[in-house]
């Protein structure tokens, strides 16, 4: 057995922050009411997390990069025949990573345009008008079901690996390291990347997008109309 570095710290932080935020967003969305402001804030944070992950997939360490794990049908078939060797996401797992990221992004994006029909509207809802915003509301309520199914499949796959294939995938997602059978990762997977500068630039860009998603770049509301002074009675 060989001890190999699998996940960098940013990926691990991203993953567990995403899990906590999705759980809170889901629960607060269901409860609604006064929690809606916190629901929305968590949603902006999730927007930032997803943008971070997309950019880190370009400039992060090798196992984080989409180019290193997103593969075509031939590689997926080879994986299913038991012929895949490597570390990080396998070619089939890569599909679930893309689906999870895509659906989380859609859920958060539709939230930005929705409204709760009472006192809250998403920061971008005014851009699309009430009718379309109501439609976003029903999409937002629908996509959560797809997300629920995907998360269930995701956790089931992790449990399958743990109990049937006797491979603990959770520990590397916590510690960053895995113990793999002694087939070293191909050179492309051991190349370094994802330095401090790349990390800081990625965080800054993600924070910028989250700020814009939260309505930070919306034009200021027009000044409140002051009612004309009541004319004196004489
Ligand atoms: C709201 C629930 C969850 C969401 C949205 C979610 C999302 C994700 C995403 C997007 C990835 C890809 C990581 C990356 O490359 O950036 C991932 C990987 C992973 N997740 Fe989750 N996850 C959730 C819950 C969980 C839970 C509860 C566990 C543990 C029981 C878990 C364990 C893992 C592991 C071990 C991996 C790495 C899989 C591999 O080795 O290919 N996740 N998850
Ligand atoms: C990935 C992030 C998000 C998740 C997982 C999520 C999840 C949910 C869920 C489960 C509901 C309840 C839907 C229903 O059954 O009626 C909901 C409702 C809602 N969400 Fe989100 N949401 C997210 C992001 C956002 C964002 C960014 C905003 C706005 C800034 C937002 C605004 C709303 C509003 C206004 C409602 C309606 C509440 C009501 O009708 O009482 N959501 N969300």
What does this protein structure show overall?
The chain is mainly alpha-helical and 234 residues long. The protein has a single domain (2-182, 195-213), classed as Transmembrane di-heme cytochromes, Chain C (Fumarate Reductase Cytochrome B subunit), CATH 1.20.950. The chain is 62% helix and 3% strand. The chain is built from 9 helices and 2 strands; from the N terminus they run βαααααααβαα. Strands 1-2 form a two-stranded antiparallel ribbon. Helix 5 runs antiparallel to helix 6 (129-163). The chain is elongated. The termini are far apart.
Write the topology of this structure.
Elements lengths: L1 E4 L3 H23 L4 H24 L6 H4 L3 H8 L10 H22 L16 H35 L6 H6 L1 E4 L6 H4 L5 H18 L21
Antiparallel strand pairs: 1-2
Helix pairs in contact: 1-2, 2-5, 2-9, 5-6
Features:
2 strands; 234 residues; Fumarate Reductase Cytochrome B subunit; 9 helices; mainly alpha
**What is the third-level CATH name, the topology?**
Fumarate Reductase Cytochrome B subunit
Enumerate how many helices there are, as a single number.
9
Q: Total domains, how many? A: 1
Q: Which hetero ligands occur in this complex?
A: protoporphyrin IX containing FE
Strand content: under 5%
- Shape category: elongated
């Amino acid at each position: 057995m060989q001890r190999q570095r699998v996940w960098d710290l940013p990926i691990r932080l991203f993953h567990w922050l995403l899990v906590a935020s999705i759980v809170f967003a889901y629960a607060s969305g269901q409860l609604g009411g006064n929690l809606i402001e916190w629901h929305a804030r968590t949603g902006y944070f999730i927007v930032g997390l997803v943008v971070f992950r997309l950019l880190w997939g370009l400039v992060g360490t090798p196992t984080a990069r989409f180019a290193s794990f997103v593969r075509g049908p031939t590689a997926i078939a080879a994986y299913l025949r038991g012929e895949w060797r490597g570390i990080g996401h396998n070619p089939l797992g890569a599909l679930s990573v893309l689906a999870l990221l895509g659906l989380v992004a859609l859920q958060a994006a539709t939230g930005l345009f929705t409204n709760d029909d009472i006192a809250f509207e998403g920061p971008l809802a005014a851009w699309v008008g009430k009718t379309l915003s109501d439609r976003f509301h029903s999409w937002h309520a629908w996509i959560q079901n797809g997300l629920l199914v995907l998360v269930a499949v995701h956790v089931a796959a992790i449990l399958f690996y743990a109990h049937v294939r006797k491979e603990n995938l959770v520990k590397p997602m916590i510690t960053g390291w895995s113990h793999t059978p002694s087939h070293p990762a191909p050179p492309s997977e051991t190349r370094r990347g994802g330095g401090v500068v790349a990390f800081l630039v990625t965080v800054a860009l993600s924070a910028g997008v989250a700020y814009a998603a939260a309505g930070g770049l919306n034009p200021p509301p027009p000044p409140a109309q002051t009612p004309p002074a009541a004319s004196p009675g004489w």
